[in-house]
Write a structure and sequence with these properties.
Length: about 55
């Protein structure tokens, strides 16, 4: 008798996707916290526009 086995590839791909999603989320949170600590703002307009010095 032949036994039917489940294909492990879909499960491995789903697990890999979960791990990658978690890693990217963690990286984004750490990056945002670091930018906020350096710039002391979370306003994207302030982040995109360099401050001009008065001469």
């Amino acid at each position: 008798m032949d036994k039917a086995y489940a294909d492990p590839v879909p499960q491995a791909l789903i697990l890999t996707a979960i791990v990658i999603s978690f890693a990217l989320t963690a990286f984004a949170i750490v990056l945002l916290k670091r930018v906020y600590a350096l710039v002391e703002t979370d306003d994207l307009d302030n982040l995109n526009t360099p401050e001009e010095e008065d001469i």
